[in-house]
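Q: Convert this sequence to structure tokens.
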Amino acid sequence: MKKFLCCLTLVTIVSFSGLSGCGNATNNNTSPDKRTETKLTEMDHSSSDKVPKGLKKAENPTYKVGSQVIINADHMKGMKGATATIVGAYNTIVYVVTYTPTTGGQQEKHHKWVIQEEIKNAGNKPLKPGIEVILEADHKKGMKGATAIIESGEKTTVYMIDFTPTTGGERVKNHKWVTESELSAK
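A:
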């Protein structure tokens, strides 16, 4: 029995860790334990095609709008290896951030990606690692308005993509963001 419970716990942990990148929990269970699990995994798979004010379209992106690519990133379960269609390409600065959700819960470490235009009063100059900022991104529940620490940043082309997870399920539309280095030609 002990061995069974150990295995069950391990499977549960592994399952939830696979969802922690960009999961889209729609669980409305309001028990305290379930709310904590949900907070760690909520991310809108599909979102609006609206982009932040001031974000500039890439003039000559490596991957053109409408082209198909392979996703090499694993922000969420079923993403790595999926075929995606490029729906937008933009030049900006992307950041890896650590923040605590405004809804409470555990700190979200090493979140990829928040772009310059999704940071309150960021201006147009690169932000240095260690700086504290306020997020305007709404990728996950509790993200918008959260205080975050910039871990790293780089100027690059970011892409908005549509894809069907390799694990099956509904097609993800207007996923924000993947970087050029996280994609390869199909």
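The helical segments are 2-19, 32-41.
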